[in-house]
Design goal:
By secondary structure, the protein is an alpha+beta fold. It has three helices and twelve strands; from the N terminus they run αααββββββββββββ. A hairpin with a 4-residue loop joins β3 (148-150) and β4. The longest helix has 68 residues, at 31-98. It is elongated and about 125 Å long.
Length: 282
C-alpha cells in the first residue's frame, strides 16, 4: 500500500515536470487552455461586477450622509449671510441717528442676534382661503406660536399652531390684517428706514401689496421691502420682496405698492424658524 502511494506520487511528479517542460517557451495556448482561461475570466468578471457595485453603493451611501450634513450647514450659512447683509445695510443707515444713543443696554444690542431652526416641509393645504404648511418641528424643538418663518430668499409666514412634533405655518398671503384675528406685517423700505407700510394680500389680483405708505415715502420700482420690526411679531430686517409698481392710495394721501415676493410659496421644501432672543421683564 505504501509503495503504491509512492508510485502514484512519482507518476504525478513526472507528469508535472513534463507539463512544465511542455509549456515553457510556448507563446500559444492550446484550445483547452484557452477555454479554461476564458471561462475563468468570465466567471471572475461576473463576480467582480456585483461585488464592486455593492462596495460602491456603501461608499456612496457614506458620501451621501456627508453631503447632506454639508448642505444643512450651507443652508444655515446662506440664511445667516442674507440676514447679516440686511442687518449691515440697516446699521449703516441708522448709524448717524444712533450716535447719540450710546446708552443702549446690552439686551437691546443683542435683539437682532437671531437663531435659525431648519425644518422640513411635510405637508400643505389646498384651501385657497387659508394657505398653510406643516413643518416637522414642534414644541419639543422649542417652536412656539407666532414665530416668524422664512426661507433663504425671504419671509414665508408665521407659526400659528404648535404640536409636540409638528407645527402649522400660516403663509403671509393668508394673514389678513383687517380681520378680528388679523396679524399685520409691518414693513419698511431698505433704503428708507423711516418709511412704513402694511403688507396685505389682494385676492382679486392675487398679489402681495404694501399699503398705507406715507406720501413722503413714494416707492420706486425695485425698492427692497423688509420687515420693520414694529408690532413685536416679525423680527426686523427679514426680506419680503421688491416693488414691481406703485399707485396712489386712498384720497391721494398714501401709496400702495405691488410687491414681488422674494420667497417662492409654491415650492417650499426647507424653511427656517426665526428664534428671537427673549426680552426679560424688568
Amino acid at each position: 500500500m505504501r509503495n503504491k502511494r509512492l508510485f502514484i506520487l512519482m507518476i504525478g511528479l513526472i507528469v508535472f515536470i513534463a507539463l512544465m517542460g511542455f509549456t515553457m517557451g510556448r507563446t500559444r495556448l492550446t484550445w483547452p487552455e484557452k477555454f479554461l482561461n476564458d471561462a475563468f475570466g468570465t466567471a471572475q468578471g461576473a463576480l467582480y461586477r456585483p461585488v464592486g457595485a455593492v462596495a460602491d453603493f456603501f461608499r456612496d451611501l457614506g458620501r451621501l450622509s456627508d453631503v447632506y450634513e454639508e448642505n444643512e450647514q450651507l443652508r444655515q450659512t446662506v440664511a445667516q449671510y442674507t440676514q447679516d447683509q440686511v442687518k449691515f445695510n440697516l446699521l449703516e443707515a441708522d448709524n448717524k441717528r444712533l450716535q447719540t444713543a450710546l446708552h443702549f443696554t446690552e439686551q437691546q444690542m443683542n435683539m437682532d442676534n437671531y437663531r435659525y431652526l431648519i425644518a422640513q416641509v411635510i405637508g400643505s393645504t389646498s384651501n385657497p382661503y387659508e394657505k398653510t404648511i406643516t413643518i416637522n418641528l414642534g414644541s419639543r424643538d422649542g417652536i412656539k406660536p407666532e414665530m416668524a418663518v422664512r426661507t433663504v430668499d425671504g419671509l414665508v409666514g408665521l407659526v400659528s399652531k404648535v404640536k409636540n412634533f409638528t407645527s402649522t405655518v400660516t403663509l403671509i398671503t393668508s394673514l389678513d390684517p383687517n380681520s378680528s384675528k388679523g396679524t399685520p406685517v409691518s414693513a419698511t423700505f431698505l433704503g428708507k428706514p423711516e418709511s412704513f407700510g402694511i403688507i396685505e394680500y389682494d385676492e382679486e389680483t392675487q398679489s402681495l401689496q404694501m399699503t398705507k405708505i406715507d406720501e413722503h415715502d413714494k416707492p420706486a420700482d425695485g425698492d427692497q421691502v423688509i420687515t420693520s420690526g414694529l408690532g413685536s411679531l416679525f423680527p426686523k430686517g427679514i426680506i419680503i420682496g421688491k416693488v414691481k409698481n406703485s399707485q396712489v392710495g386712498d384720497f391721494g394721501l398714501t401709496y400702495t405698492a405691488i410687491i414681488e415676493p422674494a420667497a417662492k410659496y409654491n415650492h417650499l421644501r426647507e424653511v427656517f424658524v426665526v428664534v428671537v432672543p427673549e426680552v426679560e421683564e424688568p
